[in-house]
Amino acid sequence: MATAEPARPGYALPLLLLAGFRTLIDDLHAELARQGHPELRPLHGFVLQAVGMDGTTATELGQRLGISKQAAGKTVDRLVAAGYLERIDDPADARRRLVRVTPRGADGLHRSAQIFDQLRERWAATLGPDRVAALEDDLSTVASANWFRLDMPGWFGG
């Protein structure tokens, strides 16, 4: 005898969370493109944040992102070509090259933060500010303590 599927099956929750995340990210990138950053992709935000304003090496970047040095290097190459990152000699060690965020990269990060604020406001206008705040509070309660991790690209990639 088959059992009835629950009204809210467990597998729906992660799919809905992913769909909400995807909606925010797609809306973010559509607006970034309108504001002059059509080259930026979801992975690039993680990369720019992992590089940080002090810069890093490709090896350190790969470790921060949970991806190989080679994968990090290819992504850096793309972001250098697009003007978001640059490679410079490390002033503390002439044998090393650093990757750092350019003014264009910093502008992309700044605009991303502003757009996320606008997207949150849009969700609050649709759902109500109290429901969005409650959703954030609830997710903060159930998410791990170190919920913001730059190694998401490596986690998604397996």
Automatic annotation (TrEMBL):
Residues 10-144 form the HTH marR-type domain. Signal peptide: none annotated. GO terms for biological process: response to stress. InterPro entries: HTH_MarR-typ, MarR/SlyA-like, WH-like_DNA-bd_sf, WH_DNA-bd_sf. Transmembrane segments: none annotated. GO terms for molecular function: DNA-binding transcription factor activity. This is MarR family winged helix-turn-helix transcriptional regulator. It comes from Micromonospora profundi.
